[in-house]
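User: Run a structure prediction on this.
Assistant: Running it now.
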Amino acid sequence: MKPKYGILIVDDDKMLAQDTKECLEHEKEIDIEVDICSDSSEALSCISKKNKYYDVVLLDIKMPKLSGTEVLQLIKKSFPDIHVIIISAYLDEHNRDELIRLGAYAAFEKPCDFHKVKEYIKRAIDDIEITTLKIKGLDLRKALYQVAKELIFKSLRQNDWHLEKTSENLNITRWCLDRWMKKLYIKRATL
């Protein structure tokens, strides 16, 4: 069975990259395959392979050959859907803002809280899944609104458009019901 998500770690500190890989592979909530590259040209070569796709790249800034900033720009230019998370010992507030402006999904300073990095990887994967659903024609927000509209209409009809009874039936406040009705363009029936 092929793993669902590809993660590429790009760091010239091979021991740290290996530790990061092992931590990620023990993550049971997401089905991932993790690869490691130790320099920027190797990373760009891996990302460009036709038979492999990476969803998330964990990228160091200071590396031999091209810098992480240059690699980030090249990745975002050719593969804009890849989420790039920067992990670097050479990060300050100005740097972080610039990296985010260039397309980084997040930026962490080494040593970093690995639980936070994992959380951002999960968020990136959630974003990928939502985008995939939208591409397939399933918009989750529209689906939520459609279900809410049907539930509210059903309850309103069952309660003869009595708003207090309807809000009790739906287990929401009257104020919340009014907001949903306004949001969904449901007008109170005239009796």
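Helices lie at 14-25, 40-48, 68-78, 93-101, 114-135, 140-158, 163-170, 174-183.
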